[in-house]
Structure formats: C-alpha cells, structure tokens
User: What shape does this take?
Amino acid sequence: MMTKHRVLQVGPAPLLVSQHLENNYDVLRLWEQENAIEALKAHGQGCVAAVTSAKYGFRNEWLDYLPQLKVVSSFGVGYDSIDAVELKRRGIQLGNTPDVLNDCVADTAMTLLLGAARGLVRADRFVREGCWTTEDFPLTHSVSGKKAGIVGLGNIGQVIAKRLSGFDCEIRYHNRSEKQGVPYRYEPSLKALAQWSDFLIIICIGGPSTHHLINDEIMSALGPKGLLINVSRGTVIDEVAMIKALQEGRLGAAALDVFENEPYVPEALLKMDNVVLMPHVGSATVETRARMSQRVIDNLDGFFHDGKMLSRVV
Ligand code: 8YV
Assistant: This one.
C-alpha cells in the first residue's frame, strides 16, 4: 500500500472536502491543536500540501516548519488572507476556487440591491409586527432603469453587470485600468463614478491595494440618495467613515455582506434602518459550496496527479 501524503488542514472544511482528505491523505488538523506552532514543529516536516480557505487564511510564520510544502489549496476565490507573493518566492503553488461562484455572488449582490432599495427587511418586519392594519408602508425606491456603478469589473463584476442589464440599468465601472471588449463605460475616476451612480456595487479584490478605497470622499460623492453595496471584502470600505456618513445623512443607505472585523459588526450599524446586513454568505448556497469544495479537491489531487492544479493563482 502506498503511504498517504501528509496534508495540513488549517480550519474546518465542508464535509465533501474533509471526507475526501480523511479518505485519501494523512491529515494534520491544525485548528484542533492546542498550540499550532508546537504541532507544526512536531508534525509539519512531512506536509507537502495544505488546505485552507479565504476565511482561515495561511500564516507565513508556519512556513518555517513546513520545509516540504509545495502546494496550498484554498476554498474561496479571494486570497487576501494568504501571502501569495511569499508562497511564490518559496516555490509553493496556490490554488483557489474562481468562476464556480460567480453566479452565486452576483445573485447575492442583486439580493442586497433589491432588498435594500425596496425595503424588504423593513417590509417583512412591518407585516409581522401587525403595522399594516393601522398604517401604510412608506414608499421605497425603484431599481429598474437606475444608474449602477461597479467597482471591480472582474469575472463576478461582469455577471453582476449582466444581471443589472436585465433590470435596464445604465452601467459604468471603475477598475485600475480599462477592460477591453466590455460594453460598459469605463470611469477612470472612482469619485466621478460615485457621483454619477444611484448604486455603487463593490466587487473588487481585498488586501492592501484596495484598503479603504471607499473612503469618506467617495461616500459623500455617492450622496444622500446613494446606496452602497459590498460583496467583496470589508476592508475595501472605511467602516468608521461609512457609519459617520450614514449617521449624518451624507450617504443614503448601505447593504453589506462583508465587514472589516468579521464576524463582529459595529453596534451602530445594527441600529440603522437604512442598512441591510448579511453574514458573509455571498457564495453560501448548497450548490455553490459543493462546486467550490470539488474545486479545492481537484486542485489538490491535480497537484499530486501531474503537478497541475485546475485553478492556480501562483
Ligand atoms: C467564502 C469568499 O466566504 O470566495 C471568497 O473569496 O469570501 C467566500 O466565498 C470564503 O471562501 C469562506 O472561507
């Protein structure tokens, strides 16, 4: 019998992934260890691969105890919690799960947009609390035909744009550079895009390059009637500035799936009626999570099969 390759599992994973690991690899479950560094000192030597996620990330300090590490397979498309540059420098491949979640995250963006614009959460509460029998629900705002600005017209951004086109929205986008071959107008100035937009949808990458990209100036430009939607990373928005802008009425509303310090959401946001909150569930459907799980497995197995991962970042 062939000896199983040792795999470092950083955090809990969906059943499909953890069962596959269990059945095919010699798994070191890092999150169950009392002391991660001591466990790595004792058992890290033989680890050729690691499995993690956007949520659990990967710490550079572990690398000193993983001299044989060749591959990291991560669950999720975003990898801002993993130092891809350092992995590359050490000749370690990194795999993620792009594309299989595009539709789902775009659906989440639309859920937040429609839900916030039409007051879904407030309306539901209104009916449940019996208010309908004594008063009329206040008017909300239309989505169809409005101006939508997309920050980050990547693969998910383009699916969101397709969805918005179905609502006859006018679409413009901001990226670091103009994208060739897309039918939407590029806006080189983020502030100008915010000024023009009724809704500003954030779906760019996280990490240092986009940290607090959405600052006080951008939110004021979006304005008192503007709706800010975030399905990327909490770090892209200056949360303190956003709370202030919402409180002062300089920003109309926000619909958020991600936060700066997850799973902790600032108390002030919990109290606001013009804010819709979701617990980072952009890709969290049974169908999408199954496809993401399969990609994590395929990336890992692909590496052991012929050295090639299906979706390789570095
Ligand atoms: C998941 C995500 O919540 O794909 C991403 O980048 O943020 C989400 O799909 C995440 O992967 C869970 O760790």
Observations:
- The first strand starts at residue 6 and ends at 9.
- Residues 53-55, 75-78, 101, 280, 282-283 surround 2-keto-D-gluconic acid (CB under 6 Å).
- The two ends are 32 Å apart (CA to CA).
